Write the structure tokens for this entry.
Amino acid sequence: MTPVAVTGLGVIAPHGNDPENLFSAIMRAESAIRPVFPELAKPACAATVAFDETRWFTKLQLAGVDRVSQIAVAAADLAMRDAGAGSGADLERMGVYAGCGMGGAGALETAYRGGGRVPPLTIPAFMPNAPASHVAMRLGIKGPVLTYSMACASSSVAIAEAAQAVDRGDVDVALAGGSEALIVPGVVMAWQAMQTLANFSPGAAATAVRPFAADRSGFALGEGAAFLVLERAEHARARGARIYAAIAGCGISCDATHLTKPDAQGQARALKTALRQAGLQARDVGYCNAHGTATRIGDVVERNALAEVWGADLDRIRVSSTKALHGHLLGSAGALEALITVLALHRRELPPNAHCQVVEPDCSLNLILEAGAKAPDLHAA
């Protein structure tokens, strides 16, 4: 795979809508996780977005547009502005590749709790492909507009597919990322029923998520959207674009074993494919932004996958899960964490694995336990 340049970043996230400010907050280990829905029988916490939709939509335009699509449009627009890729671009040679796991949760919540009256635009509002469609309509993009819905991998796969499409020459510019907006009571209660959300004491919601820690108890939901602008390096240089980093390889695999229990072998296959495409050895990679959901099973499986691929070089890769600070964005998790990883490379700084006081022995990794870590020699993540 020929490296594909990342030339634009756009985000609407719990830490704000400026990528550099977001990254600085992450580097300071500032948590955006707060208590939500005090009316619920069981305490809940999540990371929510402060979003002013009137910056991008009129009241008339908002009809039938769920929050998940609103934040997607905003993040995509910010990414395109950051890249300067819209002026004079061939819109038929541009594509949208978007991940979304659960679609318009707010629209469904309103329909279910509406007292008998269901809004007439509920269906187009909650469809998982609505965010990609609204992005395309807002920006006038007429190339491929594709939605990927593979739970937590959704926007990671979208970015991988977009990079490969650029590499093949299917499009000149790809807008790749994802969005998720599911902080509504019904969805939170459903996740509570799965017993995967973090427990916390009163006043301790901010530190509830502790990836790889011995006392971890699960994740907190988050909402947000993030998009990357991807293009061939020569295309970017020809128009004088800033290049944050380059996507050099990607890997996609299926565990084919269980809907919710991950498998180390499946993860290792994806990692090995990404390294092979990039022409890198495991020891060449200095940082891993881990999925790290802080679940009892998931963190151990991920550690074992890394151990299989890195082998004797496992201590050479620094690892952190930023979900401790911004929550688990599900279908948008890969996009936000890709944006953070791009900035880690761009700034040569390593985000911390926050709130981990005692590392679980079965999760032994070279975790970044300190805030503000520098990595002047970092060149691959």
Observations:
- The chain has a mean pLDDT of 96.
- The first strand starts at residue 4 and ends at 12.
- The radius of gyration is 20 Å.
- Residues 4-374 form a domain with the Peroxisomal Thiolase; Chain A, domain 1 fold (CATH 3.40.47.10).
